[in-house]
Design a protein that fits this description.
The complex is a heterodimer of chains A (328) and B (707). By secondary structure, chain A is mainly alpha-helical. Chain A has one domain: ABC transporter involved in vitamin B12 uptake, BtuC (Orthogonal Bundle). In chain A, a hairpin with a 2-residue loop joins strand 2 and strand 3. Chain B has two domains: 326 residues, ABC transporter involved in vitamin B12 uptake, BtuC (Orthogonal Bundle), CATH 1.10.3470; 305 residues, Neuraminidase (6 Propeller), CATH 2.120.10. In chain B, a hairpin with a 4-residue loop joins strand 14 and strand 15. In chain B, helix 5 packs parallel to helix 7. The longest helix of chain B is centred in the middle third of the chain and has 32 residues. The chains are: A mainly alpha (328), B alpha+beta (707). At the A-B interface, helix 5 and helix 13 of A face helix 7, helix 13 and helix 15 of B.
């Protein structure tokens, strides 16, 4: 049970440190920055990290199983862009959604099968599929970079939905987080994620269906990306495919890694995602309030991610015994 | 012969199945796939894009290719060392900016701009190398982060200084020359790429640092255990990659006279795809600069070709994604399954109908009839020896034999109770012979022909013969030197049993039954080795006839003995003197009564003879059954056969108990005794021959009485 992050002092430590930093940052921003501590801004913070957090949940499950999914952002943007394009070309909503869902499942399956059965490193598979998904959808299926949501469509209504003045994506994030928590902690397949991530060979030897479970994780990640994409389109009333070339993907990895999910797999959980998302949310919000230009924000985020990876390298050193040749 | 058999013999003896396995076992097949892809790409795009091969068009695209190849060369070196460098695009862009900044804004010389570029690349590479080499971080994520970092920095710098660069009026002939002109018909970028590729190739294949890189990529732990400074080597690969990317960046700065937001964009995915498509392996150890360059040409031709064909935004990414996924998958699967495929297809049996034979069963009344005489032999070195394939005695009656540990062991006369390691050669010493001056000549399985002087000095005489033009497998190398004998003029005649299998895979050779055995001669006068005869089914024992004018050699899997003439009207030709024996012949040696001893390593069985007429069945057998369930020659019974000069069988003896000498690979007569060895035996037998000359010795028979 150590691998859950509850009893593992190492993860707890990093998680604790990050949580403490987040609290300190929060207090400092509350004191130093005018307009930080008001309910609108707080809601804005939570809202801004919701999509990021949802994507990070999918990424977390993949990383815990000793993988990585670099195609998450491409799937998120391109699937929704294709959906909206289909809608604007007059296709019925149900059929369009079925098409997109099938496409997303196919890419998730492709990722999973190449990683699990062809034994290609996850990094390369997902890098290639990301490039392919973006290129294919952009060149063959849609006509321009940004695709707007048709007026009056349920995606647009979703964006305006509020409960207790809190936007709906926050509830979706919370619900998904809880669902992932239940999945990882209390279901058999969820436990398999940890076993396979900790030691895939041993997991296979004790009879866990390691390969089908790997496929499942990539499909899960792809579906989560679709949900995140729909929420993005809902709040912005359009989807801009240029987001694929932005640093959003690295923000997702940042959230997962900085929250304490080791890249070598088998450690971490939903709490780590929440803590990581909190820190990044506060940080981004504070930088926006201080009015740091976007380019400099990228620089700062990259520096933080680098620091996080270095710390991760020290806390979860690579195990020469189970690390395989070519594991890069 | 039935119709079915005739078909089988045509199918399996005329279709060269074995070539498939031989081609697959070649290392250049690794290059063949990317090379074919290269040819296909160039021909497809060359034919559908008008003017693709026009000099002007080539000039412009090769300039870009030069810059790109530089980056790919750096990426190749990093990948060979077991890493990956995704920050090349950022380094490229930042180096480009450094050059632009120094030249246009500081208005310094081009050379200073070059120095600034290279310094930027080295610094960035050193950061990568330090984090990955010394901190042992994951290469992919670390360079991904330094890539974002570098890109963010570059974007900031470009937006800050774009206007200043536009307004600058710095010009230089050198810059224009590097950017626009050609030297001997090729642009500076192409020259730079060619020179760097040659230097890198030579360094990788022929220098210590290059070998270290390949060793670390091949197996990091082994390299560490071998004393290679793994961390420093990894560090250096990233520094080199930074250097290469910075050269590319400088060249594009000269070509475009500026830096824009698009500089180096997507370069890392392109370079990675190029290296992988070219066949540089992920995870290191396999690949070359040439492969990287082939990949570079393929990728650049594809992406540029698609742009020129007018496909829209995103097509490039789509094609790159497909190429990367396919190439990586092929690479991984090929690496993992290559030896399996090879195992599947390498064994390519042929059809052979063995002639009917006489029985060797006790009481059958044939000349081959085996008895139980060898079971009466004394034993020498019982339990101490492993695999005395051949035995020989010197003029002082000491007994020598090879062992499977690669040693030649000497037993001391008169009682042969004490022994010592006479010499250590390695390999598996098989056939033995003494030359005129008392040097012990040995055919060492898997190594070659060796000589051990009485002072125990080991010398290699020959390990290769001339290469035949039509053979795909390298038949210059001696794969399974088996037995040797020495002519009166000092020339050493020896056999190389098979070209297709190593010595320990003799069972596979018997199953395949392809005729690739050779008879060779080594001439000590000029140390040359020549192939005399080729195309026998496992040439084995060799023995000089008593008059020294011809020699006998055994063809094991065909159960035949041939005579090869050294002199006389039939010189240089061979004729079959014994055919269709019931046993598989091994070594042949002289007997005191003017006849010859021949060892049988095993006996023919009706079942295996039948299987030789069913090559398809043997092929299936080697593919589907574990090795210990294969049907192959029965080696649980053997014997010793005496034959005369004409090939007539004089007598045969065996060990029907199977306890002492079930298989016999060699026997040597000495002073009335027969010394018997077996390659799988744990002893040497000594059998008293009734009525033999008690003074006859082999050295005296060959080289005369003691001087």
């Amino acid at each position: 049970m150590n691998a859950t992050g509850w009893l593992n002092w190492r993860s707890l430590n990093q998680e604790g440190i990050v949580f403490a930093i987040a609290v300190v940052l929060f207090i400092a921003a509350a004191i130093g920055l005018p307009g930080f501590i008001n309910s609108n801004n707080l809601v804005a913070i939570v809202r801004s990290v919701s999509v990021l957090g949802i994507l990070a949940l999918g990424m977390a499950v993949v990383i815990i199983g000793r993988g990585i999914d670099l195609s998450a952002v491409a799937i998120m943007a391109m699937s929704v862009a294709w959906y909206l394009q289909l809608l604007s070309s007059g296709m019925s909503d149900g059929l369009a959604f079925a098409y997109v869902l099938a496409g997303v499942l196919a890419i998730g399956l492709l990722n999973g099968i190449l990683v699990a059965y062809a034994e290609v490193p996850a990094i390369f598979v997902t890098l290639a599929t990301a490039s392919f998904v973006f290129g294919y959808v952009r060149s063959q299926l849609i006509t321009q970079d940004a695709v707007p949501v048709p007026p009056g469509h349920w995606v647009e209504l979703l964006g305006g939905l509020r409960f207790l003045d809190i936007p709906v994506e926050v509830f979706v994030f919370a619900g998904l987080a809880f669902a992932f928590f239940l999945f990882l902690r209390y279901t058999k397949w969820g436990r398999y994620v940890y076993f396979a991530g900790d030691n895939p060979v041993a997991a296979r030897n004790i009879g866990i269906p390691v390969r089908p479970m790997l496929v499942l994780r990539y499909v899960l990640s792809a579906l989560v990306s679709l949900i995140a994409g729909l929420l993005t389109a809902a709040s912005l009333h359009s989807i801009n495919t240029r987001i694929v070339n932005s640093t959003l993907l690295y923000d997702i990895v940042l959230v997962a890694v900085i929250g304490g999910i080791g890249l070598s797999g088998g450690r971490g959980g939903v709490r780590n995602v929440l803590v990581g998302a909190a820190l990044i949310g506060i940080l981004l919000n504070a930088m926006t309030i201080i009015d740091i230009p976007l380019l400099y924000q990228n620089l700062i985020k990259a520096a933080i991610l680098l620091a996080a990876i270095i710390v991760d390298g020290f806390i979860n050193p690579r195990d020469e015994q189970t690390a395989q040749q070519g594991d890069i | 012969m039935s119709f079915r058999e005739r078909l089988q013999s045509w199918r399996y003896n005329l279709v060269p199945d074995h070539l498939v396995g031989e081609i697959l076992s070649k290392r250049w097949t690794d290059n063949a796939i990317p090379f074919l892809a290269l040819v296909a790409t160039l021909s497809v795009f060359g034919s559908i894009i008008p003017g693709f091969f026009k000099p002007m068009s080539l000039q412009e695209s090769t300039r870009q290719l030069g810059e790109f190849s530089l980056v790919v060369t750096g990426m190749t070196v990093v990948m060979l060392g077991g890493g990956i460098d995704l920050s090349v695009g950022s380094i490229f862009a930042l180096s480009c900016f450094s050059a632009v900044f120094v030249f246009f804004i500081l208005e310094q010389s081009v050379w200073l701009a070059l120095a600034a570029s290279i310094a930027t690349g080295l610094l960035f590479g050193a950061i990568n190398g330090y984090l990955i080499g010394y901190f042992r971080l994951r290469a992919f994520l670390t360079t991904l982060v330094t890539f974002i970092f570098g890109r963010a920095l570059f974007d900031i710098l470009v937006t800050t200084y774009a206007a200043d660069v536009q307004l600058s009026d710095a010009t230089s002939d050198v810059l224009d020359f590097i950017g626009d002109d050609t030297f001997w018909g090729l642009s500076v970028a192409v020259w730079a790429a060619i020179i760097l590729a040659i230097i890198t190739h030579v360094a990788l294949t022929r220098s210590r640092p290059g070998w270290h890189v390949q060793a670390v990529g091949g197996s990091r732990r082994s390299a560490h255990n071998a004393g290679i400074r793994v961390r420093r080597t990894v560090f250096m690969t990233y520094v080199f990659s930074g250097f290469c990317a910075s050269l590319g960046g400088f060249l594009i700065a000269c070509r475009l006279s500026g830096a824009g937001p698009g500089t180096g964009l997507n370069l890392e995915v392109m370079a990675l795809t190029a290296a992988v498509v070219g066949g540089v392996s992920l995870g290191g150890g396999r690949g070359s600069v040439i492969k990287g360059l082939m990949g570079a040409i393929i990728v650049l031709t594809m992406t540029n070709g698609l742009i020129r064909l007018g496909y829209g935004t995103g097509t490039n990414q789509m094609v790159l994604g497909i190429m990367l996924a396919v190439a990586v998958t092929i690479d991984i699967r090929w690496l993992k399954n290559r030896h399996k495929v090879l195992d599947e297809v390498y064994v390519a049996p042929v059809y052979l109908k063995m002639g009917a034979t006489q029985s060797a069963a006790p009481g059958s009344g044939t000349p081959y009839e085996l008895d139980n005489r060898l079971s009466e032999a004394d034993h020498i070195g019982l339990g101490e020896l492993e695999g005395p394939e051949d035995v020989i005695l010197d003029r002082d009656d000491h007994l020598y034999c090879g062992t499977r540990h690669g040693e030649i062991v000497r037993f001391f006369a008169p009682d042969y109770k004490h022994s010592e390691v006479f010499a250590h050669i390695g390999g598996f010493p098989l056939g033995l012979a003494f030359d005129k001056t008392g040097n012990l000549i040995s055919c060492v399985g898997a190594m070659g022909l060796y000589s051990v002087s009485p002072e125990r000095e080991v010398k290699r005489l020959s390990a290769e013969t001339s290469r035949s033009w039509t053979s795909i497998v390298d038949d210059a190398r001696l794969r399974d030197p088996n037995d040797c004998d020495i002519a009166p003029d000092g020339r050493i005649y020896f056999t190389d049993s098979t070209k297709r299998y190593d010595a320990h895979d003799w069972a596979l050779d018997s199953i395949e039954n392809r005729a690739t055995g050779r008879l060779l001669v080594y001439d000590p006068k000029d140390a040359s080795t020549k192939t005399l005869l080729d195309g026998y089914r496992y040439t084995n024992g060799v023995c000089m006839a008593h008059d020294g004018k011809s020699l006998f050699f055994a063809e094991s899997w065909a159960c035949r003995v041939h005579r090869y003439w050294l002199e006389g009207p039939k010189a240089g030709t061979a004729e079959c003197v014994i055919r269709d024996m019931p046993g598989y012949p091994d070594n042949i040696n002289r007997a005191s009564d003017g006849n010859y001893w021949m060892a049988w390593l095993g006996m023919r069985t009706p079942s295996f003879d039948l299987s030789l007429r069913h090559p398809d069945m043997r092929k299936r057998m080697t593919r589907r059954l574990p090795q210990d369930e294969w049907l192959f020659p029965n080696i649980n019974t053997g014997g010793v056969v005496k034959f005369n000069e004409k090939g007539g069988i004089v007598e045969a003896m065996g060990d029907l108990s199977g306890a002492a000498h079930p298989m016999v690979t060699s026997m040597r007569e000495h002073k009335g005794y027969l010394f018997v060895g077996g390659i799988l035996n744990n002893r040497i037998g000594r059998y008293r021959i009734a009525g033999a000359d008690p003074n006859w010795t082999s050295p005296a028979s060959y080289w005369g009485a003691k001087p």
